[in-house]
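INTERNAL AUDIT FORM
Audit reference: QA-55
Scope: verify that the stored structure record matches its stored sequence.
Auditor: D.O.
Record contents follow.
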Amino acid sequence: MSIGNKIKSYVAFTKFRLASLVIISALSGYLFAGGSDGNTMVMLLVGGFLVTAASNGANQIWERELDKLMKRTENRPIPQGDMSVREALTIVVFSLSVGLFMLYSINLISAVLGLFAFIMYVFMYTPLKRITPWAVLVGAFPGAIPPMLGVIAHSGKFDLVAGVLFFVQFIWQFPHFWAIAWVIFDDYKAGGFALLPSKKGKSKNSAYQIALYSFLLIPFSLLPWLLGWTGTISLIVATVLGLLFFLQSYKLLRTCSDKDAKKLMFASFIYLPIIQFLYVFDKIEGVIPK
């Protein structure tokens, strides 16, 4: 295999784009908490990326036989024979070890959080995906850790700021992931996954729960403003974005169509980074708890 193809295999195995989105959330938390140290930022971003890459890779090792059954995953490196399980394990162990070491160089709690996210994602969420739709709830915990990790990388402790940013991303996980599960429902079904909240799959019940969590995202997204950490711009923009996001989920509730689920899915990818960096840019100096 050529070097170029090998790099492509590594990018696919670690889900490079997904891992990059994760560290963007961590960066927003770090900056919002008041972090500005360049060395810490590098350790947070690279370390967080490596731990996330290890989680994604371990997930693919675990599900390598199932990946062969689904169109969206059948071309991954292991099912295609471009990467052996031994090589995949080596990448996971190396990425996890180096990533945790880099987070530990920031502080112990950051490393513990990174390890917790890895364990919960790989050894709890991954096997539960074929057992119960409650796997989404389990997966929402490690999925919401990045902004909390960013805060703790600066503060070195669990505090209200870390908790608020965690819960904003935690609530966002549900409409985000359920929209994805709706769009690729048939593929998931082929792999034995049933991750929509209703046993009936793509139904009014599932769409109702997606709309409910989309609505709940509005008050949760306003918490930084309610606590006096951000200004009027956050109030206006977060409210408008939240309403637009909810309206798209309401449209899905009315139509129950794949087209509207796909629109909601893309909207969720756009919504989160805008909200998180809105907090950063609209932060009121001197009011963030130390």
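Auditor finding: record pair retrieved intact. The two ends are 52 Å apart (CA to CA).
Action required: none
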